[in-house]
Amino acid sequence: xxxxxxxxxxxxxGACRGIGAGIAERFAQEGANLVLASNDSQRxxxxxxxxxxxxxxxxxxxxxxxxxEGDIQNLYKMAHERFGSIDVSVQNAGIITIDRFDSMPRxxxxxxxxxxxxxxxxGCREAAKYMVKQGxxxxxxxxxxxxxxxxxxxxxxxxxxxxxxxxxxxxxxELARHNITVNAFCPGIIESEMWDYNDRVxxxxxxxxxxxxxxxxxxxxxxxxxxxxxxGKPSDVAGLVAFLASDDAAYLxxxxxxxxxxxxxx
Length: 266
Ligand SMILES: NC(=O)c1ccc[n+]([C@@H]2O[C@H](COP(=O)([O-])OP(=O)(O)OC[C@H]3O[C@@H](n4cnc5c(N)ncnc54)[C@H](O)[C@@H]3O)[C@@H](O)[C@H]2O)c1
Prior knowledge:
Elements: E1 9-13, H1 18-29, E2 33-38, H2 41-55, E3 59-63, H3 69-83, E4 88-91, H4 106-134, E5 137-142, H5 155-175, E6 180-187, H6 193-206, H7 217-223, H8 234-245, E7 256-259
Helix pairs in contact: 1-2, 1-8, 3-4, 4-5
Nicotinamide-adenine-dinucleotide (NAD) binds at residues 13-14, 16-20, 38-40, 64-67, 92-95, 115, 142, 144, 187, 189-190, 192-195.
């Protein structure tokens, strides 16, 4: 594989599994210096060690809560001290809960917005301080198909992911003059532990007396609506993120790009 990111510092949040781990692997394959952040310290350490061994790259794990300003400041400070630049920052950490309107706790609503939206903004804000000084950088934010269209029983998640697109557009306008691009990607159904949860909990709530969803059945039904007739893999998403971080995407900013096998066309 080409080594487009050799000598570049790439920070990825939510890198301990799923889409974030897939993105980390792609950047490792292309020679980046990686700083991998997650609130699951054990698993992110495992991923970093695995990638460092397999691809002979620098991969530093860090325990970070993306809603904690001190943790975020420490993440970029450490990455800059260690590698001397902050070239690409991927704000990927995210959570979901699924509930009917009359049983969703306020705390769940607030938490989803804090992690998915405030967390993205905090990462962009901190990374941009370094990128402005450098006169270059790439900010890449994780939205969702729900950033395009809300879905049932997840008003907080839809709001949070639409918010990510708003942050992306606003910061793209502000940072363009500094040679910093800000883009978002909107995954559809991607195989991950988050989707195991979605399949189980949406499956429970959407089950009726006529139709009860067993394990994997709801996901299989929804996958039939995807024009490409399969769920995505973290590596599918990682290819897009690597493109957005590459020189080929130098003139692309303020965009939100669907990566969903054709599920949403807009
Ligand atoms: N899987 C999908 O189908 C799908 C679709 C659209 C969007 N997304 C988005 O993609 C991103 C990754 O999703 P995934 O499917 O890999 O999910 P996942 O649940 O498998 O992984 C989420 C990651 O975020 C980390 N995380 C959660 N809260 C955190 C916090 N407060 N601080 C730091 N790290 C935290 C977790 O440790 C984990 O590494 C999320 O933002 C999600 O909303 C996923």
